[in-house]
Design the sequence.
């Protein structure tokens, strides 16, 4: 999704902004642009494609500017081209605006401004902003007031940064529904939509809340609400090492993040397992544990991969916590009449913590009086801040667009929450201790699975030209089938579907022939024999089968074409292990197809539009 980076200080701003924009590349975008100020001179440069193309365009320009704003755009209104790229400007090019989000009422505003004689150059919703601001300035307002008045006229979401040639010592920023942070340096201030873009420069961060606006100078800032109330903002010290957001010697962020899983999984459980008491300690839920455990119903809600984690969570909670549990697509929740009661608990799961659909569903759940918890990876993100309480996954920054380590860490946190509730309800100390012992062994087992990387790469060679894939699993491994199929679709553009294995005979079996590879997730568990029967059915129709099987399963080798063996654990933790070979398989197929695995086409890391 769109990214924002800004700088105001004494240094040349272009290299700082370009570097920041590159750090946001993982979010997905299709064009980029930058504008600068120095005294009463200004400039704007835009390009379609990567930030490196913008950089090339800037090479021959004198860039003696120390105030600037840069943007990466992910098209929503109007095709990706230079005209539609940000920054947008007013008629005399004195005001420049970058905008993340969507202005829902841009059409009536645009119509009105056109009737007043304004000529629009782009097809975007965002271009109304510089013209609106211009109108208020012409009535005698300061830049800050003009931006504030303009934002009071728009409906929708925004993270904005605005500069003006007539007030060249400041940047105005504001936020509603789209993230925005300040980084405070010494005699310089950074602006970004994501803390990753400025962590190289400072660790002193200010997070803005919705409906807040600020006037930012190189050495200070003043914040208000957009309804003109003065506010004090807290400065937060963010601890994040720069190498956490670099590739660390790997070809892609995705493989780096897959390989980091022994550590990220360990970090998700670090300090949270109480072996002696056979339970989990989750400080983020303090004050809410009782209400959670007494819930009549738990609703897990999210989008995409995080939604698949919810499905696994449903199995965990029903098996051990014995609380009726449901899973909801966050994107669907608001568009029906959900029956939500005050004794329900919603748990929203989100890597980014900024997914617009999840945030909207969360507002709805809050409005209806439910307890709202969050499981987020990005510290200080909107979902983390807006939930009543929550648990961070601590997987570290996930840059690859396809989620991998964040998913396995979400499963760990769900297991911890399940354990916490289960021990307060029915599960015995011994059973609780057993779950903990198994959890502790997971990082080592993941290490063992990652050693199969070469084997999985060889298997991938056989499927580079496949057009379709079926992923099949049962019980806890049904969501893994969905997640495996999503990973392949996202980065290799091969059509793939996940199904509960037994559903195959109710339709998908019609697709099976020698050109339809089927991946079975078939560890030795209570449904193993039934899954083996499904494998036989595929083989009888000449289908190619890849099985993810248990280490000690020597029967399956003769039955299938390829087998990837993983260590065993208890059923509730098995998806953490079985999902990893599927991440590797998708990765290698996509790399062998020569595709950009870290930034697949049309996808964004953080989906901040509904
Ligand atoms: C898939 C993927 C997406 C996200 C989804 C929700 O690999 O990354 O499906 O899971 O967009 O994002 P978060 O978890 O940030 O709310």
Sequence:
């Amino acid at each position: 999704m769109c990214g924002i980076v800004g700088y105001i200080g004494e240094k040349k701003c272009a290299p700082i902004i370009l570097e920041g924009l590159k750090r946001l590349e993982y979010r997905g975008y299709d064009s980029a642009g930058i504008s600068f100020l120095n005294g009463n001179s200004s400039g704007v440069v835009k390009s379609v494609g990567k930030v490196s193309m913008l950089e090339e365009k800037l090479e021959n320009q004198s860039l003696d500017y120390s105030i600037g704003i840069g943007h990466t755009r992910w098209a929503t209104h109007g095709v990706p081209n230079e005209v539609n790229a940000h920054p947008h400007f007013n008629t005399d090019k004195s005001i420049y605006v970058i905008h993340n989000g969507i202005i829902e009422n841009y059409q009536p505003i645009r119509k009105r401004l056109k009737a007043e004689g304004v000529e629009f150059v782009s097809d975007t919703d965002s271009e109304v902003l510089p013209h609106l601001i211009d109108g208020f300035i012409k009535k005698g307002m300061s830049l800050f007031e003009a931006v504030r008045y303009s934002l009071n006229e728009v409906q929708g979401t925004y993270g904005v940064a605005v500069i003006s040639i007539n007030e060249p010592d400041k940047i105005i920023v504001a936020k509603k529904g789209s993230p925005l942070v300040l980084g405070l340096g010494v005699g310089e201030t950074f602006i970004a939509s994501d803390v990753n873009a400025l962590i190289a420069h400072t660790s002193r961060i200010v997070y803005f809340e919705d409906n807040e606006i600020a006037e930012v100078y190189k050495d200070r800032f003043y914040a208000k609400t957009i309804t003109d109330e003065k506010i004090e903002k807290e400065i937060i010290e963010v601890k994040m090492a720069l190498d956490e957001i670099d590739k660390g010697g790997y070809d892609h962020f995705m493989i780096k993040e897959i390989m980091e899983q022994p550590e990220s999984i360990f970090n998700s459980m670090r300090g949270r397992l109480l072996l002696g008491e056979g339970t989990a300690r989750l400080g983020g839920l303090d004050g809410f544990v009782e209400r959670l455990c007494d819930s009549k119903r738990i609703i897990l809600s999210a989008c995409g991969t995080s939604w698949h984690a919810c499905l696994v969570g449903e199995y965990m909670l029903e098996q051990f916590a014995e609380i009726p549990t449901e899973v909801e697509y966050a994107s669907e929740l608001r568009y029906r009449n959900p029956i939500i009661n005050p004794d329900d608990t919603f748990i929203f799961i989100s890597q980014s913590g900024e997914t617009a659909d999840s945030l909207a569903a969360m507002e709805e759940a809050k409005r209806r009086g439910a307890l709202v918890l969050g499981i987020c990876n990005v510290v200080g993100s909107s979902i983390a801040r807006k939930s009543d309480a929550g648990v961070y996954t601590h997987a570290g920054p996930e840059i690859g667009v396809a989620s991998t380590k964040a998913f396995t860490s979400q499963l760990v946190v769900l297991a911890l929450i399940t354990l916490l509730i289960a021990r307060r309800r029915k599960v015995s100390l011994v059973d609780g201790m057993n779950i903990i012992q198994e959890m502790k062994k997971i990082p080592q087992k993941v290490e063992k699975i990652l050693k199969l990387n070469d084997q999985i790469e060889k298997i991938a060679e056989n499927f580079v030209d496949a057009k379709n894939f079926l992923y099949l699993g049962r019980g806890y491994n049904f969501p893994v089938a969905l997640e495996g199929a999503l990973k392949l679709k996202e980065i290799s553009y091969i059509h793939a579907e996940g199904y509960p294995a037994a559903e195959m005979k109710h339709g998908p079996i019609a697709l099976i022939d020698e050109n339809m590879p089927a991946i079975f997730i078939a560890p030795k568990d209570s449904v193993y024999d039934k899954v083996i029967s499904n494998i036989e059915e595929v083989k009888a129709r000449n289908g190619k089968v890849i099985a993810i099987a248990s280490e000690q399963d020597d029967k399956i080798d003769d039955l299938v074409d390829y087998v990837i063996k993983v260590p065993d654990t208890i059923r509730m933790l098995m998806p953490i292990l079985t999902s990893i070979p599927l991440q590797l398989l998708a990765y290698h197929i996509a790399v062998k197809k020569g595709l950009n695995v870290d930034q697949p086409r049309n996808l964004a890391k953080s989906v901040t539009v509904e």
